[in-house]
């Protein structure tokens, strides 16, 4: 059973529209948490994918970060593929282009 913190993370993640991403830090600030890593750990345990679209959360520099507990290999290729299927584009270094980031206060 997810913790109350995890449920807050999942609820906020569900608000990220297709074709957009948010950084782990942005998501943390949105829910009043000081730790992007805590958000990442909650998403790592996401039992509600794809209803909770954790693939839409990336590192602040636009790199993919992790996916399903992995920081490379097949899972990261899957995350990239999911983002591409939603219209996300990448720069020459493989980072999400800035126009795809949700604007947060």
Q: Could you please describe the fold and organization of this structure?
A:
There is one protein chain. It is built from four helices and two strands. The radius of gyration is 13 Å and the shape is globular. It has 105 residues and is mainly alpha-helical. Helix 2 packs across helix 3. The relative contact order is 0.19. Strands 1-2 form a two-stranded parallel sheet. The mean pLDDT is 95.
Write a concise synopsis of the structure shown.
The protein has 105 residues and is mainly α. Helix content is 37%, strand content 4%.
Topology:
Elements: H1 4-13, E1 22-23, H2 24-30, H3 36-44, E2 57-58, H4 73-85
Parallel strand pairs: 1-2
Helix pairs in contact: 2-3
Adjacency order of strands in the biggest sheet:
1-2
Helix-strand sequence: HEHHEH
**What is the rounded distance between the termini?**
31 Å
Query: What is the radius of gyration?
Result: 13 Å
**Average pLDDT rating:** 95
Q: pLDDT below 50 for ≥5 consecutive residues: which ranges? A: none
**Number of strand segments:** 2
Specify the biggest β-sheet: 2 strands, parallel
Q: Beta-strand percentage?
A: under 5%
Indicate the percent of residues in helices: 25-40%
Helix segment count?
4
Q: Helix/strand/pairing class, anyone? A: mainly alpha
Overall 3D shape: globular
